Amino acid sequence: MDKGKIYEIKQQIEMRNEIKKVYFCKKKILALTFDATWGHTYTASLLEKLRKYNIKATFFISGIWIEAYPEDFRKIYEEGHDIGNHSYKHPLMLELTEEEIYKEINHTEQLSQNIINADCIFFRFPYGNSNKDLIKFVGKIGFIPIKWTIDSMDWKEISAEEICRNVIQSNDIGNGAIVLMHNGGKHTVEALDLIIPALKEMGYELVKISELLNAVPIYKYKLKKLKQARS
């Protein structure tokens, strides 16, 4: 393993960098994640598809989406999926002050708690747009920043087959990988009928981000400590 990769892993484990992949994962598991900001046309079908395959995923949800679709938000939580904070209005956070960033995140946290009364400990930067200072700030206010290992590109409205290939043929697929998808992708639900069976055929179990982190002792410890600090 080269020095650059070792440094990346060290920074990530110490929560000084976004988690793009859970390293040292001995189990053949990976996580499907879905960002939700605009629209809910496919949300019910998406949840139905996850139920069909008995899959639990992680949803990173913006505050404006919670306001627009509170019952959908509640249903996602009640069906056992992890919930992550995805800001309020989905801005480019590099253009915001720390005070503005805090308001974006905290407002969404309050909206979430008003509906599901549960802490959302995970955060994903809109557009994956961040830097070390932003990552440090998000950690300082009690969140674990989660990025992704594989971008399915479903947001480009490509075909279900192309989405599937982007995932299962990725050079980055492996234990501890995190897949980026979207609840509003035109062909995302259709693609799941290809992706999930293919990943299972490859021997993978699909889990939530919380389960992915808890599968590796060092990440599990850091997660526990952060939860204690927030309580």
Which features characterize this protein?
13% strand; 46% helix; single chain; alpha/beta; globular; 10 helices; 231 residues; 8-stranded parallel sheet
Question: How would you describe this structure to a colleague?
Answer:
The protein has helices at 3-13, 43-52, 63-68, 70-78, 98-116, 132-140, 160-168, 188-201, 209-214, 217-230, and strands spanning 29-36, 58-61, 82-85, 122-123, 144-145, 150-151, 178-182, 205-207. The protein is an alpha/beta fold and 231 residues long. Strands 1, 2, 3, 4, 5, 6, 7 and 8 form an eight-stranded parallel sheet that branches. Strand 3, helix 5 and strand 4 form a beta-alpha-beta unit. The N and C termini lie far apart (37 Å). The mean pLDDT is 93.
